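Page 47, continued from p. 46.
Same chain as before, 404 aa.
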Amino acid sequence: MSLEEFKSKKIRVFRNGDIFTPGKKLVVSTRVYRNFEQVMNAQGTTERPMAMLELTHLAHHSLKRKSNPARSQFLHTLSDEISLVNGAVRRVYNLSNGTPVHSLDDLQDGGLYVATGGEWFRRVPYMVAPTETAVAPPITPGGRERRRTSVRWGGGANVRARFGISRIGDEGKKEKERERGIFGPTSKAYRVVVFQNGEAADPGMKVILNYRNCRTYEQLLRNLTDLLRINVRKLYDAETGHRITNLRQLRDGQNLVAASTEPFKKIAYPIQDLVAAEKEKATKVVEEDVPRVITVFPNGDQYHIGWTITITRRKFPTLQRLFDHLNATVSLVSGRIHKLYTLEGHCIASTDELTQGKSYVAVSGNDHFIRTSYNLNAPLPVHAGPHGLGGQTRVTEHMAGIRK
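Result:
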């Protein structure tokens, strides 16, 4: 036995299909692991491979060393370290080319691997640092000299084409730029309508996209999957049919079509113009809900200065709401307010009849409207003349003689 067989190897193992976990770092050595996996004999009991038995026998008699009873199987220990959702680890694949690993000798120092529970290897972009490399297993094509090929993460057109791995160079920067979010903590949200692909009777679902639920394109697809109850993997523009591949292609008020893996189905979707509808609604609210300032006097009180109230449809949709506000704010000697009159004696039936800058009289109970002059203590307006002291010097005899 040589010292190379006892040399430790540092590897990183990912869960199959998990693109959010950076993987588990492990140190592999024959001093720690007895073999790659347990072998089941015909009776169903666990036994060790014949090659390993011969190797242990040779080591016992030639080196006079006893095998370490604390050593365990690699897959058994990996199951405890990785904790797959679907059970124990049954297979291990090389990340660079997807080939299965059958023994500890196939593991390379610094290699990247994927652990599965028996299912096939999933080719997704795992969280690999740019400084790490995916080491391919040694190959001996046609009896050539054994060589070890080191492939940079995302390097090589054939690797990118087979496994969907992006470059770290200029294309990696473009990919990172494309995944940069379009929303900030204080950015304005987007309002979009999402239809299911090929569903003509679908009225569409209105969705608000903001900083919390749309930071990346993948997060948007996951949120739409939860909302629509389908596996959303593609997004299309409902008007043009063009596929949307990043957040930069989204816009406020857009109509989208969510699809799984099938292509876009061109049918008559009920397109909605959210931006125009919102502008029309805002314009209508501004036109219809203009604040009006009025003054209310107690019935028959000529010297009261009155109460100033701002009337809006949202605040006082009915006249009873206005009466409740007046009764909670002021209290008349004759009781609660039940009627509102103009100074001319016309009874107000709704808040729409209230006019900006006008004065009204509040009447309580069964009292009758008292027609009189209100707010007698109000200061009289002074009209300034063209000359000093409000123009009053023009009419005095003394000033008239001086001016002559």
